[in-house]
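For this section, I looked closely at the sequence of one protein beside the tokens encoding its backbone, which the following lines show:
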Amino acid sequence: MTESSQLTADADDDGVPLPPPRAPLDAWTWREIGYLLANLPMNVAAFAVLVVWLTLGLGLSVTVVGLPLLAAGLTVCRLYGRLERARARAWLGVTVAEPSPLQNREGGFLGWLWPRLKDPVAWRHALFAVVRLPWGVLTFSTVLVSLFVGWPVLPWVARWLADVDRALVRGLLSPSDELERRIAELESDRRAVTDTAAADLRRIERDLHDGAQARLVALAMGLGLAKEKLAEGRADETVARMVDEAHGEVKLALQELRDLARGIHPAILTDRGLGPALASLAGRCTVPVTTSVDLAERPAPAIEGIVYFTVSELLQNVAKHSGARQASVEVWRSRDRLLLQVMDDGRGGARLDGGSGMAGLADRLGAVDGLFVLDSPPGGPTRVTAEVPWRPRPEPGAGRRPGGRGGH
């Protein structure tokens, strides 16, 4: 076997070539020997601290000091992992990235405690300390014996044992599980963004209802009274016509504002929930629609909004493109998912790429871990089934900040 093929064969799992076996006792070999001999005292000390910490922490977990003690011990495990990474980098030439620091998602004591108790990095470092105790005993005794009776094979023994240590460091001390933690953080952030957007839509709807719309209502009433007085006094017909036109324009503006507020976030959805809101949608559809909402409780406002606007767009497609004589809407809960199904007896043939907005709906539901399934064979019927995660509605007043704007 050539030297290049030997390098390829001795590559680790990351594709990084390992140094070839070295017969002479060079400086690198002595560094590996020193690392392997130091394993035993390091691992005995780490294991002893781990046993004491776990015994006290778990034994006192029923008291107020147990869980904080466990959390503090896991913080020490992170420091131990940092020390072992530095030792492997200096003596074995293994470079392992440092995991990202813990982020306290909430303030206060629980915000400090809970992230540390479920920290996967710290628990893997604790596992590293457990695994390394018997391995440290083996490496220490093997290298020590080789130093006195196995001098010709010592370089190869040191190399093989050090390679196992390199694999342990990469496997248990690398930040591989950080991806899962980052995914959980991003999901939490996305939930917060979704809730904020839903709250903003409801605020805009209230502002339109209580602000511009209320002023236009008062203006319309004033113009109506002026129109009546002009009619009673037989004033100039031009003035009467101008007032009449202004009155008509105000009515149109009011209708447009109502439609806009309904499109942003309908008041009936906020006040009464999905059942009445979807029944209202069905009543405005040009195709007869039956609705069935089987929910024992209301979901979170953001989930209600997603379901409402999904059904709204689907019913618009039914009215514009299906040629159906009737349609139906069903909403129900199955464990941790909220499902909806919209059916019509139209001509069928709908596609996700057909320009009817189906692809946009699928993308929007996918962004919140939802699903969108379209079944529309030529000749019909068309069935759209969608599901989104179920999230319970927060308790009244939960999360309200002092001094915040309340409802009217």
Remarks:
- The chain has three domains: 9-176, 196-264, 268-389.
